[in-house]
Amino acid sequence: MNLKQTLAVVGVAVGMAAQPLFAADINWDMANEYNDTSIHAEGDKIFSAKLAELTGGAIKITHHFGGSIGFKSKDQLDAVGDGALPIADTYVGPLGGIDPVFLLPSLPFLAKTPEEARKLFEAARSGYEAVFADNNQKLLWASPWPPSGIWAKKPVGDLEALAGLKIRTYDANGTITLQEANAAPIQLSWADVVPQLSTGGVEAVLTSAEAGANAKFWEHLDHFTEVNYAMPLNMVHINLDTWDGLSPEHQEAVMAAAKAGEDHVWQSVVTRVGENYAQMQAEEMTVVTDVDPAFLAALLEAGQKAREEWLVKTGDVGKAILDAYMSN
Prior knowledge:
With 328 residues, the chain is an alpha/beta fold. It has twelve helices and eleven strands. Residues 8-24 have low confidence and may be disordered.
């Protein structure tokens, strides 16, 4: 079921489940640094529509996509914890400086399929929940990005093509990995990527086909190389005081709506890559999928340092998460 179909089903049901106990009007601003056409924005819209249904319109969410409310992902944990925002959908890689557990989803070549990414999230869910709780927040759900590849003005299919390339990375793991591969990585928030492409500050971007298509990267770049580097996560989190101020019935409704948003994104990500590739090819981009296994092996080796550093930082907690992931 696509987004329009899902929203239509939700719309038909609006009001049917409403009960008199949902009387108060609650208005939340919800931040998301990514475009309103992104897969994560779709999940947010499903969440707010379902929440309106379940509460008879008592809880209303105003979405702020594309960073339009003024917060980048790296700022959103503090903003929600402090109450400047009641709720946000955040790419968690930039939060690795707050707690290294947030760098788990982007460990290179650890989770390369939706099934692996969800299994990895479930193995670490309690760890994420604990960090959010320590920062006066509650984790509602997580949603994946499709696998990361390399957007550039040329095919990037070997280490020679990567050498010295000014490439945007989205967190410390990517920076370490690409440094080890002799590229020239620059870590940037999403809102800064297109301006840097426009001025030549970066020549290439490590991100998914999804993210690049939403930002119309074909206006600056004409090749995408499928390396399936990682499937990073966005997480939706709510201020704990806001959560505690809800009635039990409203809390139940929030969690049910969160499940609807989460399920939609995890289901959609399975077919999203093919849809992205079709759109990119329609824009006359070259999509390279038959990547030399030797290049992928070299990138895997380059990522070893990032994996080792993550385990040092997380200690027994990180080892337990990886052991649980590998054993399932």
